[in-house]
């Protein structure tokens, strides 16, 4: 899965075209800010529509490490839609992983949990809320 997280985090279209490759017999397909990895849809950014199913949210950021070394820190949360909005639960807080490993770990968790969506670096405080229909 070389450069998958890099493309999602801001790669150009040329990089995205190079993602049409097989990794361990599974085809990875890139379309703009969306990837299909092992049957899991991975989107960059915050959802624009209210969630209709559970989704994982992977946050990847750089943090200052020891001295001049920078670390990549990832966190993973799950959001489930409900009547009053989404319930968000943090699954993994700040783990030091490179971006590709973080995406692979999130995909493994999504497969085991039968979750079909992962959002990368979404703003969990501003998830769209479904407006209840008037009676």
Highlighted features:
eight-stranded mixed beta sheet; alpha+beta; 3 helices; 135 residues; globular
Radius of gyration: 16 Å
Low-confidence stretches: 12-31
**What topology, given as strand order, has the largest sheet?**
1-2-3-4-8-5-6-7
Ends distance? 49 Å
Q: What value does the average pLDDT take?
A: 76
Main β-sheet, in a few words?
8 strands, mixed
Structure in words:
The chain has 135 residues and is an alpha+beta fold. The protein has one domain (4-123). The protein is built from three helices and eight strands; from the N terminus they run ααβββββββαβ. It has helices at residues 4-8, 13-17, 99-112; strands at 21-23, 26-31, 34-37, 40-44, 55-64, 70-82, 85-96, 117-120. The chain has an eight-stranded mixed β-sheet with strand order 1-2-3-4-8-5-6-7, with helices on one face. A hairpin with a 5-residue loop joins strand 5 (55-64) and strand 6 (70-82). The longest helix has 14 residues, at 99-112. It is globular, with a radius of gyration of 16 Å. It starts with a helix and ends in a 15-residue tail after the last strand.
Short structural summary:
The protein has 135 residues and is of the alpha+beta class.
Strand and helix layout:
Elements: H1 4-8, H2 13-17, E1 21-23, E2 26-31, E3 34-37, E4 40-44, E5 55-64, E6 70-82, E7 85-96, H3 99-112, E8 117-120
Parallel strand pairs: 4-8, 5-8
Antiparallel strand pairs: 1-2, 2-3, 3-4, 5-6, 6-7
